[in-house]
Amino acid sequence: MVIKYAKLFPDAKVVRRASAGAIGFDVHAYHVVDRIEREHLTDLPITIKQGESVLIGTGIVLAVPFPWDCAVRPRSGIASKNLVQLLNSPGTLDPDYRGEAGILMINLNTVPFTINKDDRVAQLIFTKAEIPNFMEVASVSVLPLTNRNTGGFGSTGVGEILLGDEEYLAEQKKWDRYFMKAAIAASELSDCLRGADKLDGKYVRDAEGRYCGAIRRFGCVIVKDRNIISQGFNHRNIECSEAGGCFREREGLKSGRSNDDGCLHAEEAAIQNHANSGGPSLQGTSLCVNAEPCKKCAKFISGCGISAVIVPLGIYPTNGLPLLIEAGIEIRHV
Length: 334
Prior knowledge:
334 residues; 2 domains; 6 helices; 26% strand
């Protein structure tokens, strides 16, 4: 993301971060601006007394790309040490605003505060904003119900939290268990031959057509807004057949090694099925699978926008889970 800017004055200072780990871009004071006309009022320095406020111009104009939000926030040092804050904190520089970036400052201290030219007076934080669509419904009763219901200002109190994280996590776990059952159901469709029993040289099937003794039945579902948008299960490719047997067993390949050989993994199948169906974006979705993803699948998952991976309780991060954890993806166990 690139933000174009223009200086209104040759000696105006550009916004910049103070350290490599900072997310805020410091902005510098240039002059005092009239609040109504937004024109130059006086040069700096200026001293503001207790309760007084002043609009500081930065001397630059920013073209923030849509739909990015540029929030103007106070610098913690000025606020904590001098009790000087932003009057409209946090302010916003909208993408369609082409005026000078201004900082409205107020002195809440009993001691006068002086603002000098080039002082770092605020910081800009950039985040991408979601632009929602609004849909009118027939009545309030049609809106989704919550335990809080109509409780407004102060309804959650200041003492014990009656409805919060504990309730949310319990509800989340309930849905995780539900979708894990769906993933396990998908795994029953697997035609993987690994470990399957043979009798007189032929693979043995049960009454439902599944290979008896098969040890690598895996299923996966992808969930968005508590709806399954895709599913998959591991299934063999042309390298495996009843005539030739399991390729990995034939070649003596261990689990977690040479994962491009043999069956297509459940996670890969689910992502492929989603792509073939033209489904919604995977951004913010959850993936439920009844085994630990391999390293190859972990790379697929981390590049798709999936935000959480749910695996069975007792699975420890020994293969692909460490890659997902490193990528910042939430891991949940059920």
